[in-house]
């Protein structure tokens, strides 16, 4: 049966400009990435949604291998709600690679409403083709919603809808073959994270579904990684985890995004995150420049996805 939510959550799902998406990796970890939901949701069918470009194929490949995802509604700025709730929706994602014209029109209308009208004309139509034309909706069939009264997700959720959360903590994972320590410059990466407004941690819960919670960077140590604090309880032991830091402006113009995969260790001395990989980008608060960058990235991604293996 479809998960059905109340009017308060319905208003929130229609309001937020961005969410943090957590999805599984083949090695058992979680990647956390900011995506735009642009109001795509349907209470009657119990589904939420967001859009992505076929040019960003790695995420789509991961979703095809393991559709378990989480969507964290964690930020209110530039959106349409002043709610203080942190909401985590978990479910199964389905990429609609060949959407109907009706579905495409819904995306166009919603994208214009939330993000502004697209630039048009021969040059822009060519440059943004891969970004707009190959953009597809992703539908998430919700299985569980957990909501907290405050955006720091402190303590236990006061609202749980759908499947009850597992009572046990997620078990610790085996350490990577190449070790658990940092593999990027910790001090430099910490500086970049501190320049973002939101920091979120993702890991696999005890039932395998991604869990995404807000965290704060307390300090950094070159030998071990970032020391994190979290109001939400974190599972003890070591595990593969993803970390996202991001900021955004009105209509998602002016982005600053830092993504990490790495190793999380939670013990008596707190939570330490050792970053293994780092990606990210920053765009100026100028729509024209940002669209040029988005178009170039989408073209590059589509071309790379069409290359034969080997």
Describe this structure in words.
The protein has helices at 7-13, 57-65, 101-115, 122-127, 129-132, 186-194, 287-306; strands at 19-24, 30-35, 41-42, 47-53, 68-73, 86-95, 135-148, 159-162, 198-204, 210-214, 216-221, 225-229, 237-247, 256-267, 270-282. By secondary structure, it is α+β, with helices and mostly antiparallel strands. The protein has a single domain (7-304), classed as Electron Transport, Fmn-binding Protein, Chain A (Pnp Oxidase, Chain A, Roll), CATH 2.30.110.10.
- Number of separate structural domains: 1
Helix content: 10-25%
Order of helices and strands: HEEEEHEEHHHEEHEEEEEEEH
Q: Report the span from N to C terminus.
A: 44 Å
Identify the CATH architecture.
Answer: Roll
Subunit organisation of the chains: single chain
Number of helices: 7
Strand content: 35-45%
CATH topology: Pnp Oxidase, Chain A
Large-scale geometry: globular
Estimated radius of gyration: 19 Å
Largest sheet: 8 strands, antiparallel
Mean pLDDT, all residues: 91
Question: Could you list some keywords that capture this structure?
Answer:
seven-stranded antiparallel sheet, 310 residues, Pnp Oxidase, Chain A, 23% helix, alpha+beta, 7 helices
Topology diagram in text:
Layout: H1 7-13, E1 19-24, E2 30-35, E3 41-42, E4 47-53, H2 57-65, E5 68-73, E6 86-95, H3 101-115, H4 122-127, H5 129-132, E7 135-148, E8 159-162, H6 186-194, E9 198-204, E10 210-214, E11 216-221, E12 225-229, E13 237-247, E14 256-267, E15 270-282, H7 287-306
Antiparallel strand pairs: 1-2, 1-5, 3-4, 4-7, 5-6, 6-7, 7-8, 9-10, 9-13, 11-12, 12-15, 13-14, 14-15
């Amino acid at each position: 049966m479809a998960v059905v939510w109340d009017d308060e959550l319905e208003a929130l799902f229609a309001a937020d400009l961005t969410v943090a998406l957590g999805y599984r990796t083949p090695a058992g970890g979680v990647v956390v990435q900011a995506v735009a939901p642009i109001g795509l949701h349907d209470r009657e069918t119990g589904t939420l949604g967001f859009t992505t470009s076929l040019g960003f194929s790695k995420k789509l490949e991961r979703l095809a291998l393991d559709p378990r995802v989480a969507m964290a509604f964690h930020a209110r700025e530039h959106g349409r709600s002043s709610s203080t709730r942190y909401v985590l929706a978990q479910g199964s994602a389905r990429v609609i690679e060949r959407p109907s014209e009706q579905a495409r029109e819904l995306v166009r209308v919603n994208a214009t409403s939330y993000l502004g009208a697209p630039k048009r004309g021969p040059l822009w139509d060519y440059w943004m083709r891969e970004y707009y034309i190959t953009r597809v909706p992703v539908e998430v069939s919700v299985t569980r919603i957990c909501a907290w009264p405050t955006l720091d997700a402190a303590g236990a959720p006061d609202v749980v809808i759908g499947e009850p959360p597992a009572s046990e903590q997620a078990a610790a994972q085996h350490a990577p073959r190449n070790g658990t320590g940092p593999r990027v410059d910790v001090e430099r990466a910490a500086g970049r994270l501190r320049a973002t407004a939101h920091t979120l941690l993702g890991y696999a819960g005890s039932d395998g579904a991604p869990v995404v919670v807000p965290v704060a960077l307390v300090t950094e140590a070159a030998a071990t990684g970032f020391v994190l604090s979290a109001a939400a309880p974190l599972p003890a032991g070591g595990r593969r985890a993803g970390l996202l830091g991001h900021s955004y402006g009105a209509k998602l113009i002016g982005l600053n995004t830092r993504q990490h995969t790495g190793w999380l260790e939670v013990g008596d001395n707190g939570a330490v995150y050792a970053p293994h990989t780092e990606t990210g980008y920053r765009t100026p608060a100028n729509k024209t420049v940002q669209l040029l960058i988005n178009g170039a990235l989408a073209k590059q991604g589509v071309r790379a996805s069409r290359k034969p293996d080997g």
